[in-house]
Amino acid sequence: MNPLLEVKHVSLAYHSPQGEITVISDLSFSVGEGEFLAIVGPSGCGKSTILNLISGLLQPEQGEICIQRRPQSGSVMHIGYMLQKDHLFEWRTIYRNVMLGLEIQHQKTEEKKKQVQKMLETYGLHQFENAHPSQLSGGMRQRAALIRTLALEPDILLLDEPFSALDYQTRLNVSDDIGRIIRREGKTAILVTHDISEAISMADRVLVLTSRPARLKCEVEIVLENPDRTPIDSRNDPKFKYYFNLIWKELNDYGRDLPGTESVFEKTQS
């Protein structure tokens, strides 16, 4: 698979009067077109900073980020960014909220309007397009936020813990909804999460980072028997618990002594 995105030996430090804090050190990885990548790591290791670098909100001090083998600054591809909060405006209807990005970028064409209407219908929000955010559940709000992002037709979709504000049951249902939508739309996606189960159930591959400064500790390819790969169904796969144990011990610096993780690790590397 040809890489769509390449992060090459990237390092970044934050500077303040109190000194320098290195956040990311010599980090390298790639993402293929149509791949769903998840990034996990200890709290505060710099996971969200990586998304900010990919989106261009921050610039690396060392290394480079390439999209379709071109420097990030010269790329014509579009990057969508879905944050932890949905950031829907209460004074705008759901329809006007999902159209906001198109308005800002002066892309509010008839064709775009039809695409938004189709997504609202497909993803169960058509009857709520004249409602306001406070009238919707947390899960429905997140779906609206995703439609707002997809309306801009991004080539790469960045997801920064988009389900963290939801209760557990809603989180499962919404991750299932959004996972299905992303795969149906064929989007290349990068998910940052602290939830191992979420990473395994949604992603094709999981990157495990070290504590700060973030370095790549290992990569785990997720190969499950369920052909649909929906997040909820993936949690019932026979291999799910083995991947969970494998990633858990990498995050906690355990040796490979958990039952079954050795064989799974070998399979992910083959």
Total beta strands? 10
Decide which structural class fits the backbone: alpha/beta
Gap between N and C termini, in Å?
Answer: 16 Å
Mean pLDDT: 85
Estimate what percentage of residues fall within beta strands: 15-25%
Strand arrangement within the widest β-sheet reads 6-7-8-3-9-10
N-to-C order of helices and strands: EEEHEEEHHHHEHEHEEHHH
**Cα shape:** globular
Relative helix content: 25-40%
Rg of Cα set: 19 Å
Helix tally? Answer: 10
Low-confidence stretches: 254-270
Sheet with the most strands? 6 strands, mixed
Could you please describe the fold and organization of this structure?
The protein is of the alpha/beta class and 270 residues long. Helix content is 35%, strand content 24%. It is built from 10 helices and 10 strands. The strands form 2 sheets. Strands 6-7-8-3-9-10 form a 6-stranded mixed β-sheet, with helices on both faces. A 4-stranded antiparallel β-sheet has the order 2-1-4-5. Helix 6 links the parallel strand 7 and strand 8. Helix 5 runs parallel beside helix 6, helix 7 crosses helix 9 and helix 9 packs across helix 10. The protein starts with a strand and ends with a helix. The C terminus is likely disordered.
Briefly summarize what is shown.
This protein is α/β, with parallel strands linked by helices.
Walk me through the topology.
Layout: E1 3-16, E2 19-32, E3 36-40, H1 47-55, E4 62-67, E5 70-71, E6 79-82, H2 94-98, H3 100-104, H4 110-122, H5 138-150, E7 156-160, H6 168-185, E8 188-192, H7 196-202, E9 205-209, E10 216-221, H8 231-234, H9 240-251, H10 261-269
